[in-house]
Write a structure and sequence with these properties.
globular, 10 strands, 20% strand, 47% helix, 12 helices, alpha/beta, 10-stranded mixed beta sheet
């Protein structure tokens, strides 16, 4: 069951996609929704303060804190108006912090929620809001729903695609997605190069049998693609099947390896077209 949801409301990027998606999700599941927005304090300013400073620098730091608090509060004003109109149970949590502390605090808080909702990182923008969603994925220990920045309107997950490679992360994502799967009208399992990659005892046929026993019949699609074409192939199929949501494991390697070698997760975050539930 999903009864407690956390949404990260951006302060530097458009917030409407995650506001719309999270509020409609809370209404669908009858869940409580906590919204957190972090106004960021310049790390360089905080560093100067840690080293000891005079009254002038202290005044600048106080101004930074005040502006950060105002940015967080402003981001939550739109959320609160929409949440109130939707008559859901909610709470707002503005915070001001240096980026590293915000990642620590929100990442830890996310561990106590059934689901975290974040905005897709936008590759053309160098902001702290871009880094935090991935930190929540790494730190929360639970499912994170990435909402594309092109998303508009209420969230629905009537047709769901399950990306399957037989891995531990894919299995975790499958389990975390159960509340969504049970409310869906249609499920599609997506395997790319499955015959070569999926373990024999965790094949797509085994997955189909498992889902059927749970009362969740699914259409199976097996495709082939080079590594660089896996993400475009998944999104092409999502369009062909009119999928509302994808389910997949997130970051099979360490962050260092993903940064050096690329990966399906990183490619998906850069160019996703439908909301994607990920688990690390």
């Amino acid at each position: 069951m999903i009864k407690d949801i956390l949404v990260l409301v951006p302060t530097e990027l458009p917030a409407r996609p995650v506001i719309d998606a999270s509020i409609s999700l809370a209404a669908t599941f009858g869940a409580h929704l906590d919204a957190v927005a972090a106004g960021y304090i310049s790390s360089s300013t905080a560093y100067v303060m840690d080293g000891g400073a005079g009254a002038a620098v202290a005044s600048v730091f106080e101004m930074e804190q005040e502006r950060a608090t105002q940015r967080a509060a402003a981001a939550l004003e739109v959320f609160e108006a929409e949440a109130r109109n939707a008559r859901i149970a909610y709470a707002c949590h503005p915070m001001q912090s240096v980026p590293a502390d915000a990642a620590d605090a929100i990442g830890a808080a996310a561990r106590l929620y059934d689901l975290s909702v974040v905005l897709q990182p936008m590759s053309d923008y160098d902001t702290f809001d871009n880094a935090l969603p991935k930190e929540i994925l790494f730190r929360s220990g639970g499912p994170v729903l990435f909402v594309p920045h092109i998303f508009r309107g209420a969230f629905k997950a009537k047709r769901i695609g399950i990306c399957w490679d037989g891995s531990r992360l894919a299995a975790r994502a499958l389990r975390d997605a159960q509340p969504f799967l049970r409310q869906a009208d249609a499920l599609v399992t997506i395997s790319i190069n499955g015959a070569d990659n999926a373990p024999a005892h965790a094949s797509t046929d085994s997955l189909a049998a498992h889902l059927a026993r749970a009362g969740l019949p699914a259409k199976s699609v097996d495709l082939t693609a080079s590594r660089s074409e896996i993400q475009p192939t998944i999104l092409s199929l999502a369009a062909d099947e009119s999928l509302d949501m994808l389910v997949m494991g997130g970051y099979g390697h360490s962050r260092l390896q993903e940064g050096l070698l690329g990966g399906v997760t990183r490619a998906m975050l850069q160019a996703m077209t439908v909301p994607t539930l990920m688990t690390h």
